[in-house]
Predict the structure.
Amino acid sequence: MELNGKFVERTRALFGEERYGRFVQALETEPVVSIRFNDRKMEADSSLNAVPWASAGRYLESRPVFTADPLFHAGCYYVQEASSMFVEQAVRQYVDRPVRALDLCAAPGGKSTLLLSQLPQGSMLVSNEPVPLRAQILAENVTKWGNAASLVTRNEPADFAPFRNFFDFVLVDAPCSGEGMFRKDSYAVEQWSVSNVEQCARRQREIVADIWESLRPGGLMVYSTCTFNREENEDCVEWIANELGAEVLEVKIDDEWNITGSLTTEGLPVYRFIPGYTAGEGLFLAVLRKDGSSTAVQPKAPRMQLAPAKLKSEVAKWIAAPADFDFVMQGDTVIAMPKEHTAAMLALQQKLKVLHMALPLAEVKNNKILPLHALAMSTELVAQAFNTVELEREKALAYLHREALLFADAPVGHLLLTYKGTPIGFVKNIGNRANNLYPAEWRIRKNPLEL
């Protein structure tokens, strides 16, 4: 790997000779492969080596073709870089009650799906991404994870200004110069420059400043990057502490994890994952507490249209705890919203561009109730409410490829398809054929049997 001369000079000076030498040597090896299981859908494989700082994280010996695994498309696990799973430790050590949380720069969804698994029961997560295409990918991954207490928005950080003191917890995985991606992405190596580092550092401060008022006093911010330089890391954290009055909090770690501390300021509790030392790619993380103390602002409940009683009684059978949800009509769609978060979700929807919200259950067309794919992905689904067909891998992949299928011996109507007992989606069986209802934009584009 041929590194930019300025990068070499700056990183060697920051790391020191020994650390830099081990780092460069590691860059010549293959990237570490890791996944994190969705424990509400699939138990973590105990035969795999555990990611020590992540309860459901596991290392793989090599990188399989994930696209050819139906369980991947069903949201049973997420392919996530091991270092970034360290966010779990911040949550475990500092979040001990339900929170209203925001993942501000969330695409493609690794840290959002982790938060949906790790935040205390009763929490709500807003996952935001301003870039349209990336936001669509984020919405897909959050939907597949299956947690109804979630929203996906497509907004700039400044758009959250109306929501002052609204969030208890904000994760800013800031857009950065991507030095931690060098081993995985040759483009990141080619695009590196000092001017880009400086530009990223300015943008990171702007992002934090834009969202700071949306975090309640006493609330927590996790700041992270996937880069190594000090400008985007320690210098930015010290700016947040000095300019915004935040307290930088210590995260307890195990010495065996080989996590590196601050490289600029002795005693500053920040956490660096450096290839050659930790089994993962580059990550920098700090936990900050906003000065003061208050509860998050409770929004007024906007007007909403509840589903008619007859419709509600039909779709309520499809989820495990219907008494915990409001059944809200938005156009022709029935959305199940966790009652404790309905007001907050609708308030956010009034001001932001919402791509996904709560649990879209059904669409009403020509007086017929059609189950939606989000329901098949949801951990609230009662599978017994539908006629179910178990598929072998080849037919499951054909479904995910959005091919036409035939279920001659199955009942007519909507069928829930499963693979290894896990729901993967719906078809409408009409006897001589079945209409494939897998979302067209999510389909496997290449022939999955050739992958």
Q: What stands out?
A: The chain has a mean pLDDT of 96. The chain has three domains: 5-289, 298-385, 386-451.
